[in-house]
Amino acid sequence: MTQRDITFVADFLTEHFNEAPELYNRKGKYFNVERVGQYLKDEDDDLVSPPNTEGNQWFNFLKDSTHLKESPLLFPYYPEKSLHFVKRQMEGVIDQCLQKPADVIGKSVRQAACMSLYKISQSEDSTPQLFKLPFLWNDKTSNLHYVLFTMLENSISKIHILRRHTDTSRSVSNGILAVEFGNFLNNSINESSDSRCYSCLDAHFYDDETVTVVLKESVQQEGKERVLAQLPLS
């Protein structure tokens, strides 16, 4: 902390934490801490010590502005209320703003297709996480939606690509396919090894035509290879 910081804190303590004999008969602490704590109380009562807004540049600016003074875009200010009160007011306004879009969007959503990716036993207590790395991409040029994901069980060396047309009435060829990495890098890294196998750590679209993947060598040993690969969608 700088000396200026220490002076600021000392001045704050001197001003707000002096003993206040006139408060001794009141219930609670005998120190003038209400100026801080009053803002944090979760209640609708008015503040004990409202802030002094005289000389505040923002309030002066609003006061002198004919257009902004009554603007519905500005959230109203409650100088007599705590932050909890203002927070509840703001949450109410936000919920009201979002309710109509939520209703409209919710009614417009419908299932375009259903694909069975895997099956699990109904008797299992806990469902294993088999779906990983979902990454979405929208190709606006071709009007296509893409989803990249991997399946954890027996296909850790595969990455799946789901493709759908933005127009749900239209279909595309190869709607879903899997790319298996396996040991395709043997020739470039170690020609004498036939056991080198790779799994996908992460995958994202680089652009509309390219997918970037981070591969990890699957053998159980230290110093595993990490490979950053760019794969053309074609």
From TrEMBL:
Statement: the UniProt record of this protein carries the keyword Secreted: no
Domain of life: Eukaryota
Biological process, per Gene Ontology: anaphase-promoting complex-dependent catabolic process; cell division; protein K11-linked ubiquitination
GO cellular component, one term: anaphase-promoting complex
UniProt KW keywords: Cell cycle, Cell division, Mitosis, Ubl conjugation pathway
Bilayer-crossing regions: none
The keyword Cell cycle is annotated on this UniProt entry: yes
Entry protein name: APC4 protein
